[in-house]
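Risk register update: the risk of archive-format incompatibility is retired. Evidence:
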Amino acid sequence: MFVGAGYSGMNHSSDGLAWTLDAAVQFEEVKWVNRSFVAVGGSQVGFSRDGIHWDIAHVDYFSQLRGTAYGNGKYVAVGYYVFDPEESAYGVIATSADGTNWVSSVNSNLPPVTAVAFGNGVFVGLSGSRFLYSDDAVNWTQVETGYDAWFWDIVFADGIFVAVGDRTGLFTSADGRQWTQRNEDRNTVLQAITHGGGKFVAVGGFGGIMVSRDGLKWQRSNRGAVPNLYSSTYLNGMFFCVGGGDGGASGSICKSLDGINWNIQLFTNGAYVGGIAHGNGSYIAAGSGGIVMRSADAATWELGNTGHALDVRQLIHAGGRFVAVAGGSRTGGILTSEDGENWTAPYTDLDNYMQGVTYGNGLYVAVGGNWGVAADAGIVLTSPDGTNWTRRTSGTQGVITGVAYGSGVYVATLYDNSTTGNSILTSPDGIAWTKRSPGSDAHLTGIGFGDGTFVAVGLNGILFTSTDGISWVSRRSGALEDLSGVAYGNGAFIAAGRSGSIVQSIGPSPRFRPEYCRPTADGVMRLIIESPIGKRLRLDGTTDALYWVPLATITNQSTVFELLDRSATNSATQFYRVLRFP
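Archived output:
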């Protein structure tokens, strides 16, 4: 059982893919302690034995709880107390013997406490650059580190405490009193840590992951630190997401066959990668400052330059040529090339950034706008050949951030600071455009098309889908970071964005045909399942609906098929579920 806590509430999942909302209460953290789930956030504590049914207790209406632990026969929640915004916050400690009845204590001599763990008979808390320790969760002693830092999270496992934070990396202690710094990289930003499978794993900014078996010696995960991702595409049977760090310190190309397992290449040439395309037997990637890279296999890259100091934001290969749109340093433009080596700039604009480009029905359509002046009109350009471009009237203000073509219509996304909610534009010909609303005010930053569906994404992980560009449905992406690039391939959509965030659609779920599911004469359970062909599926079983056991994993070769549970003869009651994996 997986349990997640956040601003949308408490969610549970049996597989980490499909989630169910159980309680619409905002929480900051959830932990599995003393065979119970305990969640904290705001002035509330949630307690559950199964991760589905929750008891919610209010500790104090002026408290902000941030962390929880269990030890010495008591549950402990920590945080801070703010009664008057003009005064400093005090530390707050709440305790409970059973997880449902809580007693809180505000200590004016205790600083705000943001995380807590228990081990070796002692509670250890975090407060900015300080550690706190207590044997009884009542009387606390502060330990100054002397570092200009902020600690975010702490865990106890294998006999040691491990604390992580920014500008400090990692600290360890056996007793909460004496601490040793294990990573001296001042640029490391780690925000959460856990332990499982014999390893400590710490994660942080830009997708950084560090791993240790003993908490003493650490190494970065092979996944590496993933910067912001700007655009996504599907080329030659692979997904690609490209981007770079804030300020373009390093570029990245991420590629995946299934959208789940990613190979990540980082480039330290001082440029981000804005777009990638494939044509004439070569992969071409382009980015900031006119940088362009060529590869035959998307693994080994040859560095080059377009000859134009423009920052590419998207790149496509269509109509027999590469077309890139660029925007940076208040200079926008369009670049074209037939071979990926020799580039021309048929259009430049000193006042507008170009953001997206598509090709459909024999027409290139490029979009953009002026980020510096919200009242300026959104930019739409069209071209029949990639060389001669004509500016069209968009009829809207703001920056047009992306455009896609599908089902005979061009659809564009708009980042509009007004409250009209009209953040979608549609056009049958790329020339005349009509404002549309996805149904709510939304700052949209990208769009893609596939399998008869448009997918639009934006700030804070918002995501909408539409089959015609006119009627839209809001979807839960599962992302909190801003999303900007959408691609479709291999039967799935992916969307990528800030801090290396990548989300993937699952598609239609498999289902049982209950009218045909029944035991055979010898007690074997016959299960009839319906699912799109060629999907990777897993059948699970349980006798109590809490602990699930995998029974079979297959890739179905027909829409309706049969699975047999021969273990059903061993139990009087059995529940089943079938799960799809991307």
